[in-house]
Amino acid sequence: MSLDPTRRYFSPEIEQMPRADIASLRDEKLLGDLIPWAYQRSGLIRETWDAAGVKPDDVTSMDDFHEKVPFIDKDAIRSYRDRHDDPYGGLLCLDPADPTMKGIFSAIFSTSGTTGDPTPAPFAGRGPSMLVREFWELGARPGDHFLHCLFTFRGPSIHDTIRGIGATPVFVDHQPSDIEQLLRFSREFRPTGWYTLSGPLIMMIEEAATRLGIDLQDSFSSYKGVVFAGEPIGPRARARVEAWGLELFVQTSLGDVGAATECREHDGCHMWEDTAYIESLDPEGATPVGDDMRGELVSTTLIDKVAPLVRYRSDDLVRVTRASCACGRTHGRVHTLGRKGDEIIVQGVSVLPGDVWGAVESIDETNGLFQLVRPAREVDTLRLRVGYATEGPGGLSALRVRIEDAVEEAIGIRPDIELVEREVLLRQGPPHKIPRVAKA
Amino acid sequence: MMFATAYEDPPRVWGVGRVIVGDEIVPWPVSEADIDDETEVAAAFLRDLGLGADELVLIVSYLSQAVHVAPFERAAGIVGALYSSADASRFDAFRTASLARQLKPTVVFGVDDAVLDGFDDLGRDPAEVFASVRAVVASGTTARARLACAGVTAGLWLRLGALSAVAYPGETELRYDPTRWQVEAAGNELLLTNLVDRLTRSDRFRTGFRGRVPHPGRIAL
Question: Which of A178, A346, A372, B208 fits A173 for a cystine, CB–CB 3.0-4.6 Å?
Fold first, then answer.
């Protein structure tokens, strides 16, 4: 089947599905299929449900689901892993030794490990992911080259997805050491799509371009869209990248059951509700919050029968809206605010990394590299560890005062600033992000 | 099973990777057929390294090495095994160590100098990290030597142009499939020619490696 490059959506029948049909599809997949499957095969799900006295037969409606189905979270998965010496944390629903699984259950990938040991993620099947819809939205089309700039531990699905829209991947490492090839391949192959760009990469591209005398607007003129992922992007970094002529499409994790990516309207990240059921709940309880109100993202897969997450409390603070989007897609959107575990209460005021991000990155010398120091959830003083590339006019003392002033103006709290050379922070993270919260 | 959408018109070029000749990086497009063909050879390597059905190989590499690595990933499936992945970078060394502990791989393939530097940063002894691994294969001769110093008798994986050549642990000579590739020494440099169809031809391609060919199928550096 040919792909018509002029069509607006990759999967119009899904992307524009009426809301009532989305709900029917969810009910069919979740209640009729996923729940009994997960209960019968997943040790963690069965253990959690049995402890709550719930059986799949008790869940025949979404009201039942909301009322009766217990939550799981990362701690529960790790606990099961440790208690049962099971690297999959009781989630694996397939037997690798099952002859019928040969060629289907093929690999085990892993999470980034930013907050601890990387968690093994079983992978079954091959072929494009639902990100074909996003790559099409970027503007990439059959016959194009597409910059595949990532890691190995995420598996082959991005490669398959690029080929799924008829484009050809050009492989580049998401590493400082490969920036020159990224610039070179951008000029030589003229890709139209790019997956992914990150904050640290922006910094390194800028420095390489200055060092090599490369015009980034010219080098990047073929791109129609670039996915930015890994962590939030501050307004200053976004402006810098847009000055290169790049249109950014921010992507965020969807509670470990998928990803959500901006459309051309750039007003929240679309979550594909044919693949996941997303709730936004009171972070301290089980009550749903209103549309577009701050809540904790709780995810349930509708399609992953290998290691299904059911009512997984992600720790992500979000705003979720199902209001219609100007792009014409009917699926809801999520705005990521931060992580519940990152929140600091300073003299009664909630502070998340995103609250000070713009203020810190407004100071040129920092490149937006900072950490909240969080020895406890409630503290008397806000402490920030800030990386610097250069000292700037007046030296480090003056730089410290400028950062303190900027943060105080943004949130009304004057912080204590610890300045460190930026490499100290960059060394702490994978190439695409740094831990934004440190215990000490 | 996890994904619903089928391929539509996959392009002829599977991907644009690269080969490295000395300090020069050469973009290298390959086809799906190229990958499939190399998978057969990679499966033989993995079997010889001791990988069996229902076991796991941990492949340590970079995405930029995809055209060399993909055949080994697919070969794991041919053998009936699983594979997992970690980046061959200093930072990601923690992943190699963690997955070696959690997944208990039979073979760890592609450990390079950067990963060993990362082990140093973490205070991890390679012999302890790989204690339960049947075969470790280094990427690069210095990494192999460092592993030997740490008490790990490792094999060797080298990428000579588009060719993957492998020496098994305890062996000095690298192996390759002489029915698919011709390797010859000219002026002490190894030249590579493809004997079966490849999307990008190697015609006495200068690999930048010095060595000799004791007989077809073997390389001595």
Answer: A178
The sign of the torsion formed by the CA atoms of B97, B60, A166, A176 equals positive
Cβ <8 Å between B56 and A171:
no
- Would an 8 Å CB–CB cutoff place B100 in contact with chain A? no
Q: Answer yes or no: are the C-beta atoms of A269 and A261 closer than 8 Å.
A: yes
β-sheet bridge partners, residue A349: A346
Question: What region does B9 belong to: left with phi over 0, alpha with psi -120 to 50, or beta?
Answer: left
Residue range A87-114, pLDDT digits in tens: 899 999 988 777 777 767 889 999 887 7
Residues 288 to 307 of A: which have CB under 8 A from any B CB? Answer: 303-306
- In angstroms, rounded to a whole number, what is the distance separating the alpha carbons of residues B182 and B14? 24
B17 inside 8 A of chain A by CB: yes
Question: Whose structure tokens read 């002490």?
Answer: B188
Residue B83: in which H helix or E strand, if any?
strand B82-87
**Average model confidence (pLDDT) for chain B?**
94
Chain B contact set for A1 (CB, 8 A): 8-9
Backbone angles phi and psi of A20, in degrees to 5: -65, -35
Do A333 and A270 touch, CB atoms closer than 8 A? yes
Q: Where are the domains of chain A?
A: 343-438
Please measure the distance between the N-terminal and C-terminal CA atoms of chain A and give it in whole angstroms.
Answer: 56
Is A127's Cβ below 8 Å from some Cβ in B? yes
pTM: 0.94
Task: Kindly state whether A79 is in contact with chain B, defined as any CB-CB distance less than 8 angstroms.
Answer: no
Q: Write out chain B residues lying below 8 Å of A33, CB-based.
A: none
Q: Where do the domains of chain B lie, and which CATH numbers do they carry?
A: 13-169 (3.40.50.12780)
* Cβ contacts of B199 on chain A, cutoff 8 Å: none
The angle subtended at Cα B147 by Cα B143 and Cα B152, nearest 5°, is 145
- Angle (CA) A123 A124 A127, round 5°: 105
**Cα A109 to Cα A307: distance, rounded to the nearest angstrom:** 12
Q: What is the ipTM of this complex?
A: 0.95
Which of A145, A164, A188 lies closest to B8 in CB terms? A164
Segment B7-39, tens digit of pLDDT: 456 678 999 999 999 889 999 999 999 999 999
**What's the gap between Cα A411 and its chain centre?**
25
What pLDDT does residue B11 have? 75
Name the CATH architecture for the domain at A343-438: 2-Layer Sandwich (3.30)
Tally the C-alpha atoms within 13 A of residue A68's C-alpha that lie toward its C-beta. 17
The full length of chain A comes to 440
Query: Residues B33, B106, B127, CA angle at the centre, nearest 5°?
Result: 125
Q: Given CB atoms, is A3 within the 8 Å cutoff of chain B?
A: yes
What tens digit of pLDDT does each residue of A37-74 get? 999 999 999 999 999 999 999 999 999 999 999 999 99
**Helical ranges in A69-129 per DSSP H:** 74-84
